[in-house]
Design a protein that fits this description.
Chain A: Belongs to the UPF0336 family. The complex is a heterodimer of chains A (150) and B (142). Chain A is an alpha+beta fold. Helix content of chain A is 19%, strand content 32%. In chain A, strand 4 and strand 5 form a beta hairpin. Chain B is built from 4 helices and 6 strands, in the order E-H-H-H-H-E-E-E-E-E.
């Protein structure tokens, strides 16, 4: 069933802060095979002008996707998550995420489309630090594939 | 933010060093733990096949994380990345053997923008199939 268009523009409350830890960044960097010391060595990060180790560019998705769960699991929206695939992903950075950040995400439904029986949901996540400064925006397109004919 | 490549040194068409990233089932289990994405399509063959996939597939976000390394290894400072976006066009299928799959990524400068920024267009393939579409990064150079 097509999703309710009236949800477009709906913004969900900011998430509780996620504290970015050095060891979590290291774990993520190692999991994607990164060897750049800017992710693991605070001195190497400082040499590039960063106050502490920074996170790889896609690290923040773990945080924004958790925030998007508010949308995905909103019973009023009624998305069938078992049929969802990740369509597109985009980030626009004001600065890199770094160790010590306490990040909060505000998710907004930017668009709902129905195409050939597929529901297409565009979610924007605005990520702010503890001082209220914007860090990064994440756009996530989710596609709920049409249910197969019974 | 300090990139090791200068804006004056690059032109439209400048190619970045291509890289090949191996991915096995163990890689995916590790990525699941690090990212918190435990969707069974990324580690459970039976489940993946039940939902119509040919086999276990890599996390799209894993492929996205690998592809940008061609750019960040080029500029040195990953903090120089201003924008990065991809479309997930085909899954990276990861068989249960010692080899797994390979993700091959190349990139070239597609446009020179204002403020010392350039747009890099990336191409990512696995098993001869294009796995990312519209894969673009904007990076600020020195």
């Amino acid at each position: 069933m097509a999703l309710d268009q009236s949800f477009v523009g709906r913004t969900y409350p900011p998430t509780a802060a996620y504290e970015v830890g050095r060891e979590k960044i290291r774990e993520f960097a190692e999991a994607v095979g990164e060897t750049n010391p800017v992710y693991t060595d605070p001195e190497a990060a400082k040499a590039y002008g960063h106050p502490d180790v920074i996170a790889p560019p896609t690290f923040v998705f773990s945080i924004t996707f958790r925030a998007a769960a508010q949308v995905v699991e909103d019973p009023q929206l009624g998305l069938d998550y078992s049929r969802v695939v990740h369509g597109d992903q985009k980030f626009a950075y004001n600065r890199p995420v770094r160790a010590g950040d306490r990040l909060s995400v505000t998710s907004t439904i930017e668009g709902i489309k129905s195409l050939a029986g597929n529901d297409i949901l565009d979610i924007r996540g605005e990520v702010y630090d503890e001082a209220g400064e914007h860090v990064v925006t994440a756009w996530t397109k989710l596609v709920a594939r049409a249910a197969e004919e019974a | 933010m300090t990139a090791k490549i200068t804006y004056a040194d690059v032109e439209v068409g400048t190619e970045l060093s291509a890289q090949t990233f191996p991915v096995t089932r163990a890689t995916l289990v590790r990525y699941a733990g690090a990212s918190g994405d435990f969707n069974p399509i990324h580690w459970n063959e039976k489940f993946a096949k039940e939902v119509g996939l040919p086999d276990v597939i890599a996390h799209g976000m894993f492929t996205m994380a690998e592809a940008i390394r061609v750019v960040t290894d080029w500029v040195g400072d990953p903090g120089a990345v201003v924008e990065y976006g991809v479309r997930f066009t085909k899954p990276v299928v990861v068989p249960n053997d010692d080899q797994g799959a390979l993700i091959e990524v190349s990139g070239k400068v597609a446009a020179k923008l204002d403020d010392n920024a350039v747009r890099v267009d990336l191409t990512a393939t696995s098993g001869g199939q294009k796995v990312l579409g519209m894969s673009r990064a904007v990076v600020r150079l020195a």
